[in-house]
């Protein structure tokens, strides 16, 4: 089992705001990063560090953290945001990367 | 632009071996740690291994420790994964990935992946 826990599935109405969460003890010490993955494609980094977006990622994606929980918020979800989302950080020892189990986002 | 291109995947019998390669371009390869990350069919992402920029340090997931060996050739801008004693549960798409910072634990560039199928 993963050291980072995500809800398996979340849905959001088109244009509304959705929060995808990731829980784990290591998140008390390290930031989470977030990836978007569409079927048949490699993951794409959407948020890293405190709340940084790589070039080309829309500003409707944002990240936050509190205690042992990191969150990815999509403000004004679009149809093209329907995808699997994975969080990533370090394991509890801080020695290697770990990924959450993923959240399937459906845009209604 | 940064490019990572994996190769070497295929069908292999349980107990067999396979060597994956990742050709890097568009950045100073020798400045970065590099990782292999895999994804079993219909499943989530699993970090497999990383190697330091100078090859002095490697680390492995418990699931592959003692069976897989990561290496790199900075002169050829290439990353490798030697996989021995393969099991059915090693069936996955294998990605090479570059961290955001030189030795970070998050990844801003990924290859397209190469599929490894372990089956008799």
Sum this structure up briefly:
The complex is a heterodimer of chains A (108) and B (120). With 108 residues, chain A is mainly β. Chain A has strands at residues 5-6, 9-12, 18-23, 33-37, 44-47, 61-66, 69-74, 83-90, 97-99, 103-107.
Explain the layout of strands and helices.
The complex is a heterodimer of chains A (108) and B (120).
Chain A: E1 5-6, E2 9-12, E3 18-23, E4 33-37, E5 44-47, E6 61-66, E7 69-74, E8 83-90, E9 97-99, E10 103-107
Parallel strand pairs in A: 2-10
Antiparallel strand pairs in A: 1-3, 3-7, 4-5, 4-8, 6-7, 8-9, 8-10
Chain B: E1 3-7, E2 10-12, E3 18-25, E4 34-39, E5 45-51, E6 58-60, E7 68-73, E8 78-83, E9 92-99, E10 107-110, E11 114-118
Parallel strand pairs in B: 2-11
Antiparallel strand pairs in B: 1-3, 3-8, 4-5, 4-9, 5-6, 7-8, 9-10, 9-11
Explained architecture:
- The complex is a heterodimer of chains A (108) and B (120).
- Chain A is an all-beta fold.
- Chain A has no helices and 10 strands.
- With 120 residues, chain B is an all-beta fold.
- Chain B is 0% helix and 51% strand.
- Chain B has strands at residues 3-7, 10-12, 18-25, 34-39, 45-51, 58-60, 68-73, 78-83, 92-99, 107-110, 114-118.
- Chain B is globular and about 40 Å long.
- The mean pLDDT of chain B is 97.
- At the A-B interface, strand 8 and strand 9 of A face strand 5 and strand 10 of B.
Proportion of residues in β-strands of chain A: over 45%
The largest sheet of chain B, given as strand count, sense and whether it forms a barrel, is:
7 strands, mixed
For the termini of chain B, the CA-CA separation is 40 Å
Order of helices and strands of chain B: EEEEEEEEEEE
Looking at how many chains there are and whether they match, the oligomeric state comes to heterodimer
What is the averaged pLDDT score of chain B?
Answer: 97
- Beta-strand level of the residues of chain B, as a percent range? over 45%
Structural class of chain B: mainly beta
Find the count of extended strands of chain B (DSSP E, 2+ residues).
Answer: 11
Q: Which structural category fits the helices and strands of chain A?
A: mainly beta
Largest sheet of chain A: 6 strands, mixed
Q: What global shape of chain B is seen?
A: globular
The number of helices of chain B is 0
What Rg of chain B do the Cα atoms give? Answer: 13 Å
Distance separating the two termini of chain A: 30 Å
Give start-end ranges of low-pLDDT stretches of chain B.
none
